[in-house]
TrEMBL record:
SUPFAM superfamilies: (Trans)glycosidases. This is 6-phospho-beta-glucosidase. Keywords: Glycosidase, Hydrolase. The active site is at 374 (nucleophile). InterPro entries: GH, Glyco_hydro_1, Glyco_hydro_1_AS. It comes from Candidatus Enterococcus ferrettii. Belongs to the glycosyl hydrolase 1 family. It comes from the Bacteria. The keyword Hydrolase applies. PANTHER family: 6-PHOSPHO-BETA-GLUCOSIDASE ASCB-RELATED, GLYCOSYL HYDROLASE. Pfam families: Glyco_hydro_1.
Length: 477
């Protein structure tokens, strides 16, 4: 690409989905470790039903507890990433591996030691770490005691955790992402915020209050980090994807506008340091009762982000009247099926031009460097004799990377890097199934953790290897 040197090509995983070994070295469970392998994963969790979810049952399978065994295989996994040619790798730190209940004053040294070894291994291969501090994960103790991010007390506990990690690993990590996809607290509240609903209560207010608490914790983490090391860079992170109007009917266009501004609410606050003007009216219209004090507003205003990172899997589509229109899955929620997009082997529709549109949208709105930290296709692969011929994944990556390059070279978008999601197969958030595969590296493991757990290079591995080696040019061949 015709761009300044230093573009980051890499991949991403999360601790909750890949590490496994959820009780190793003094760690205690997180909210994610209680998600069973069934359709309840994305549904709201109610307090009066908590025994059905927050108690371990021998008959249940909990994919977060075994992941893909990255905890024991990180050395060989990073060696594979080096062979792939990546110069960056995004991973998250498990809060409950550092502070098992979230309320300890002193960290679990064994947990810190694991991430020290992981960082050392990345440094040995000159792979830059991109670190997320909260990727859909918090100690389950805080869920049970405080209702997760619904309680302001969790803000200070998180900042203590963040300060501990940043102080321990200062000078070794430049790019920090305090929260993964903060806007998903509105779609998957238990996963995104550790929130338990209550029958007959104002649960929507709880979701927005939890989002506000995460915004506060994000700002306070930035404040602390800049004191620890002024070279640290902090990013917002959102689940992104342009929302199209289903038709050119002005009512549909306005419905799309409303959905987009709600989806961009939290990143707006992280970039501009204040809530957008529409939000006060929105709160009145939806009878939201939120505690936002003047001191909070000062903290948000004074500690904004340096860059905007985002996940992109597909675009969304909406209409003023959605009855009778087919729906399709996207990242963590459903949207209207776009009749102009083809069906793909994935659960969502394939819209590579939507990535270029989203890059332009976010650049025009925020005027900050952008960072694609998740992009990929989740689908089943056929594994035979140590090989996976995944031409569908190659097609998806090729077309999306083309649009990334065009956005940089023709549209002038400032992009820090491109990280494909789940670069090593891991259990998905939405389904908990490793059979919904994202990686260019295949893991010999089924949904209930049977298999050798050995790693194999898919055809897409060699494609992405060439893309990286040519700085994106190979996508046009």
């Amino acid at each position: 690409m015709k761009k300044k040197s230093g573009f980051l090509w890499g991949g991403a995983v999360s601790a909750a989905q890949c590490e496994g070994n959820y009780l190793a070295d003094g760690r205690l469970p997180s909210n994610f470790d209680y998600l069973p392998l069934d359709e309840r994963r994305l549904k709201a969790v109610y307090k009066n039903q908590e025994s059905s979810l927050l108690e371990t049952k021998g008959s249940e399978v909990y994919p977060g507890r075994f992941g893909n065994d990255f905890f024991n295989r990180y050395q060989s996994d990073i060696k594979l990433l080096s062979e792939l040619g990546v110069n960056s790798f995004r991973f998250s730190i498990s809060w409950s591996r550092i502070f098992p209940t979230g309320e300890e004053q002193e960290p679990n040294e064994a947990g810190l030691a694991f991430y020290d070894r992981l960082l050392t291994e990345l440094e040995n291969y000159q792979i830059e770490p991109i670190v997320t501090l909260s990727h859909f994960e918090l100690p389950v103790h805080l869920v049970k005691k405080y209702n997760g991010w619904g309680n302001r007390k969790v803000v200070d506990l998180f900042v203590h955790y963040a300060e501990t990690v940043m102080t321990t690993f200062k000078d070794r990590i430049t790019h920090w992402i305090p929260f993964n996809e903060m806007n998903m607290v509105l779609h998957i509240p238990y996963i995104g915020g550790g929130i338990l609903f209550e029958e007959g209560r104002d649960n929507l207010s709880t979701q927005y209050q939890a989002g506000h608490h995460q915004l506060l914790a994000n700002a306070l983490t930035i404040k602390a980090g800049r004191k620890i090391d002024a070279k640290m860079q902090f990013g917002a992170m959102l689940a992104a994807g342009k929302t199209y109007a289903y038709t050119c009917d002005p009512k549909d266009v306005f419905a799309a506008l409303q959905q987009e501004r709600e989806n961009l609410l939290f990143s707006d606050v992280q970039v501009f340091g204040e809530y957008p003007r529409f939000f006060s009216t929105y709160c009145k219209q939806h009878n939201l009762s939120l505690e936002i004090i003047e001191a909070d507003q000062e903290i948000l205003q004074e500690n904004t982000v340096d860059f905007v990172s985002f996940s992109y899997y597909s675009s969304a589509c909406t209409a003023a009247e959605e009855t009778g229109i087919d729906r399709v899955a996207t990242n963590g929620y459903n949207t209207l099926r776009n009749p102009y997009l083809p069906k793909s082997k994935s659960v969502w529709q394939d819209d590579p031009l939507g990535l270029r549109i989203t890059l332009n949208q976010l650049h025009d709105r925020y005027r900050k460097p952008l960072f694609i930290v998740e992009n990929g296709i989740g689908t089943q692969d056929e594994f035979s004799e140590g090989k996976v011929h995944d031409d569908y994944r190659i097609h998806y990556l090729k077309e999306h990377i083309k649009n990334l390059v065009l956005a940089v070279e023709e549209d002038g978008i400032d992009v820090i890097g491109y990280l494909m999601w789940g670069i090593i197969d891991l259990p998905s958030v939405s389904e908990g199934k490793i059979s919904k595969r994202y990686g260019v590296i295949y893991v010999d493991q089924d949904d209930v953790n049977n298999g050798s757990h050995e790693r194999y290079k898919k055809d897409s591995f060699y494609f992405y290897q060439q893309v990286i080696a040519t700085d994106g040019k190979y996508a046009f061949e």
